[in-house]
Design a protein that fits this description.
By secondary structure, this protein is of the alpha/beta class. It has 10 helices and 25 strands. An 8-stranded mixed sheet has the order 11-10-13-8-16-18-20-21, with helices on both faces. The protein has a 3-stranded antiparallel sheet with strand order 4-1-5, with helices on one face. It has a 3-stranded antiparallel sheet with strand order 6-15-14. The radius of gyration is 21 Å and the shape is globular.
Length: 413
């Protein structure tokens, strides 16, 4: 499989050259899709030409060997765009001079280095086949004075390790799943697939019929992790699929995306993609603040972006978990996290048909994502402004004076 060392996010002047390829992808038929795309790439004003105009080289490798057109995958030796909705292309072998030239032309170049899953995420090894739902202490906290009811009109995206969709927690839940690996993707089509159970636990806290905060909410799940790490290209492809890739086959994307992952410190790798998804498609983002136990940063990106609702973890006494990060994205930034949720001894799905307690901001984040989904569901369609929804969720939180940064504990309403 081709490994890409950089991703170029097009902005400004360079986006004009990108537009010919976007046109080639849009509305093509399966029979002539490959030929049309390759013809567009050969034009002197195409995105491929941009790389050949860079200093030093026609040696830049912009080969992306697979492209999907109307559901059909064509193999191609030409330069093609892996993330069309985000104006991005994967590139290998850029020199520093070429990188500088791209950035001077208005593009953003980010490294495609591997991202480790959030640390200090632990499991209690209960492995209960007969579930004890009295352990699900997060539910009475979240639903303090609100009835927990199922919702099915708001979709939630989860970018994680996949999902075991056959777990009994997901009985009756509409779930679509896709695995992203560089230039390839694979629709899992309901297959049980989550080697670590991390994604399964996250998904159950959102949509699970017994432990979920938004039971029944349809799920679009992206498996982006190989072992303990993921690459930015796979995360960006997953965002693109969820917002406009028609995951449910009805032309509609997701409303909320949960990211229980992150890069340490402030890194703007995902900023353009998240800004576009939020501003253009109205997709809201929730992310875990990280598990390094920092009292003054660095926290994790993308949680620290102002466009993302960042979540820290509390224990059963509503105190900050000792592993949960606190800090600012930069010197003048707002203290993070934005909101807190249960993240210690949280009872959720695990493995094939099992249940377990888990610790980590990874599991506080989906609780808040589910609260966002509930807020969207309870708001008239013409009033579903992302800023207003976030405001409603923050206003509904209870004040907890012993919590640092923003002392707000998430609650349903």
């Amino acid at each position: 499989m081709t490994e890409f060392d950089s991703i170029v996010m097009f902005r400004g002047v360079s986006a004009e050259k990108f537009e010919t390829f976007r046109t080639a992808l849009a509305g093509t038929g399966a029979e002539n899709g490959r030929q049309l795309i390759e013809g567009e790439l050969a034009r002197p004003d195409s995105v491929r030409a941009l790389f050949h105009e860079l200093p030093g080289s026609p040696d830049v490798d912009v080969v992306y060997p697979f492209v999907e057109v109307d559901g059909n995958v064509f193999e191609s030796g030409n330069a093609v765009l892996p993330i069309p909705d985000m104006e991005a292309v994967a590139v290998s072998n850029l020199t520093d001079e070429q990188r500088d030239a791209l950035e001077e032309g208005g593009a953003r170049v980010i490294s495609n280095e591997r991202i480790e899953r959030l640390r200090h995420v632990t499991r209690h090894s209960l492995d209960e086949l007969i579930p004890d739902f009295s352990r699900a202490w997060h539910l009475p906290v979240i639903f303090d004075s609100v009835t927990r009811v199922a919702i099915d009109n708001v979709r939630v995206g989860v970018i994680d390790t996949g999902i075991n969709a056959r777990h009994p927690e997901f009985d009756g839940v509409k779930c679509v799943a896709r695995r992203f690996r560089g230039p390839r993707f694979e629709d899992l089509r309901g297959n049980a697939d989550d080697e670590t159970s991390h994604g399964t636990s996250v998904c159950a806290l959102i949509s699970g019929q017994n432990v979920g905060v938004a039971p029944g909410a349809p799920l679009a799940v992206a498996d982006v992790f190989e072992g303990l790490s993921a690459r930015p290209i796979d995360i960006l492809n997953a965002i693109s699929w969820m917002k406009r890739g028609d995951p449910f086959g009805d032309g509609q994307g997701v409303d909320v995306i949960n990211l229980s992952l992150g890069l340490r410190g402030y890194r703007d790798d995902f900023l353009d993609a998240i800004q576009e998804a939020l501003d253009v498609d109205g997709v809201m983002f929730v992310a875990a603040i990280g598990n390094d136990g920092h009292d003054n940063g660095p926290c994790c990106s993308p949680a620290v972006y102002s466009e993302v609702l960042s979540v820290g973890a509390v224990d059963k006494e509503f105190k900050r978990a000792d592993f949960s990060n606190v800090g600012r994205p930069h010197e003048d930034g707002v203290p993070q996290p934005d909101i807190w949720a249960p993240g210690v001894g949280v009872y959720s799905a695990h493995g094939a048909d099992l249940y377990d307690c888990v610790d980590g901001t990874s599991f506080a984040s989906p609780i808040v994502a589910a609260i966002l989904a509930r807020a969207i569901s309870n708001t008239p369609v013409n009033e579903r402004n992302p800023d207003r929804i976030a405001e409603l969720v923050l206003e509904a939180a209870s004040e907890q004076g012993n919590l640092p940064a923003n002392p707000r504990l998430a609650r349903a309403f």
